[in-house]
Write a structure and sequence with these properties.
Shape: globular
Order of helices and strands: HEEHEHEHEHEEHEEEEEEEEEHEE
Structural class: alpha/beta
Distance between the termini: 14 Å
Number of helices: 7
Strand content: 15-25%
CATH topology: Rossmann fold
Radius of gyration: 19 Å
Length: about 350
Amino acid sequence: MGRSGSRVAAALAATALLAGLGAAGAPPPPVAAVARPMIVIVPGHPGVPGMPAIRGYGPAELRSAYGLDGTGAQGRLVALVDAFDDPSAESDLAVYRSQFGLPACTTANGCFRKLDARGGTRFPRPDAAWSREISLDLDMLSAACPDCRIALVEADGAGIPELGVAVNTAASLPQVAAIGNSYGVAESATEIQWDGFFHHPGIAITAASGDGGYGTGYPAASPHVTAVGGTTLRRDGSPRGWSESPWTGASSGCSRYEPKPSWQHDPGCPRRTIADVSAVADPATGVAMYDTYQGPGWVLAGGTSAATAFIAGVYALAGNTAAVVGGSYPYAHTDQLNPVAGGYTPPAGLGTPAGTGAF
């Protein structure tokens, strides 16, 4: 890790005060393995004079904030896994990309594909809540990586085994570079049996840490993924032009069940530490998204979902996924990240992209 390694290890030691979450005591009660999308929508203000129709950061601002101007993915493929169907996914994506001057990404031009969990077109039933998640994922991937090809893979339901089947289908797509997973469930002992769904060496798998504050969830706890936390992002007068602080709503902590990966060396948590990296997620400094399936169109959104899809796009921009093992790559390139709050902090992980060098 170079000169920043000792600082990261020292900062990670702060999690020792919280590691008891998964230490001694009675085992937790069984939990339902039904995932929820990690998105936070900020209510609109209908009828209020002067309120802009589009609120939140757009692609140009996000690419500026994270040092991505001038980068491209040369058409690399990123898959997004969600539950249920969004009937308006492609048309809503077209509105978002047109609004912000991004190139069209459609079925007709070969950029966009929507698949069911088996790689076909027998889509599951629509769902309004997951439709919002799908719209946010598509928009944030587009913001990070305007020239990425996109495959949306829709699981039959929101159970981890159902979503896992969709992840495996996504991983089977030729030349897929990254897979984004913007959902989660509370940790349980069963999750060890699910880890195989997310074990795809050579493909970057991103997973949202969650939006519930301190505490851990799955699949972010899996050692086979990059666990993505969240920040509050604001413009400032620094040379970068932006500043960030940990978003207190981003979930983080010490896994109850997953072993410590070989690439994590912090003494504060005897098992998997969450998160690894982050990007903007605070809805108070949120992003613009567009969704019309039982939705109003333009809304201001946040949540670690936004960061997760964005980071999947950054991995595709970097083009290093053949060398990716779980969430390990950023740990060996911490000098290529924007540190948040001076170094490692659980809600924001090691930091946020400063270009693509850490991915």
